[in-house]
Amino acid sequence: MGYKNPSDHANFIIYVLLNPYCQKSLTQQQNKNTRKIVMAESASSSTAPQFGDHPAPEPAPKRVLIVDDSRGQRRLLSSYLKRWGYEVLEADSGQSALQISKTEPIDLVLSDWMMPGMNGLEFCTLFRQLDRDSYGYFILLTSKSEKKEVAHGLDVGADDFLTKPVNFAELRARIRAGERIQKMERELTEKNRIVSNALAEIQCLYDTIDRDLIAAKKLQQSLVKERYRDLGTAEISLLLQPSGHVGGDLVGFFAINKSQIGLFSIDVSGHGISSAMMTARLAGFLSGGTPERNLALIHAENGGYLPRSPAEVAEHLNRLVLEEMDTEHYFTLVLAHLDLDSGTVIATQAGHPHPAIQRRDGSVELCGPGGMPIGLLPGAGYEDFQIDLTPGDRLFLMSDGITECPGQNPDDMLDEGGVIDLLKRNHSIRGPCLLETLMWDLNAYAGDQEFPDDISAILLEYSGAD
């Protein structure tokens, strides 16, 4: 705000600073016809407090403990330290200094080395053993100058030395050096506190996510309501082992009518929550609990259901994923239906590993045309193929978590040939026991390392009609 008197030849310009907390300096300059009074602001921060703000509290003076059996030396040191703005405590022995240090927060210790009873080194050793909230800087005052003595003092916990008689300019410089170290220590402590709090929050979030994932795992596992069923002429066993809490694999079966049953093995790309949500949605399209919504079923004239061509179902799912689902995931699939009376299987393969047929004599053959994964290419075509099972044969559907199981060497992988060997080796084992044995064999092959991918399988064992 400025004021100018038009009737006077002299101009008066006054700058009034509205911030009462800024330091002000007054400078008067007098020229021939001009006099200016300037009030200048020299605030240390660009964000000075406004009216109504409370000024930042002044930092408490540093507390210094002087330990010396000489009263005159204590008084001399104390007078300088108080002049420099420090709060001073005095002790005439190491023992009394230790008692003070136990009850008072000491920032800096100036201790004589040679004292009756407990000397400065002994006091320093016990001082370092105290349970303190912050670091206390320790300076020993001594007439000793031998390097061995100095090294011993540093070894027991002293931070610095000052030779008697004390040079007070040097003392002040060494105290300031100690304060810089204490400032860094306080800053580091504060940063550690912030990091610790952040880690605690992250751990809390992790625990919450972990609980949610455990709940999600239970929900996903509930999609496979039965791991084994005896159908009379055939037995079905299921294996589902996510690589994490939840995964992108899904296996299952559903009733079509009294003489037919459907099977599916799905492997969604990726891992984790998004893949698991995709499998959950796909499970709804192939659910046995709601056959009217099952894409693999069509209504029969008698009110029941008949199987739809697995290839047509794959084409339908491909359109759904590309046109109606906002996702970057795709999935592989083997979808089949079995005639329980004849042992005939009609299936389609969409990028999934080839189904393995193990004949009654133990021999193993792979089947299926391969095909494109679902959700990659618009208009992709799929084809049905037929498998004829005779009593004693079994059909094994697997995800690539089995065929791509890594070995103990980085370049090793089980592949389909390894699966054939495992089926031949365990030809005499049946049902869920075979799937459990295969898991043991996979663990042994991988060297007990964690599996990088979900593992799932369907074992269909056909015994035929009596």
Structure write-up:
With 466 residues, this protein is of the alpha+beta class. The protein has three domains: 1-45, no CATH class; 63-190, 3-Layer(aba) Sandwich (Rossmann fold); 226-462, 4-Layer Sandwich (Phosphatase 2c, domain 1). Helix content is 33%, strand content 24%. It contains ten helices and 20 strands. The chain has helices at 71-83, 94-103, 120-128, 147-156, 168-222, 273-285, 310-323, 400-403, 415-425, 431-446; strands spanning 24-30, 35-41, 63-67, 87-91, 108-112, 137-142, 160-163, 228-230, 234-241, 249-257, 260-268, 297-299, 305-307, 331-339, 344-350, 356-358, 364-366, 384-388, 394-398, 455-462. The strands form five sheets. The protein has a six-stranded antiparallel sheet with strand order 8-9-20-19-16-17. Strand 3, helix 1 (71-83) and strand 4 form a beta-alpha-beta unit. Helix 2 packs parallel to helix 3. It is rod-shaped and about 115 Å long. The termini are far apart. 29% of the residues are buried.
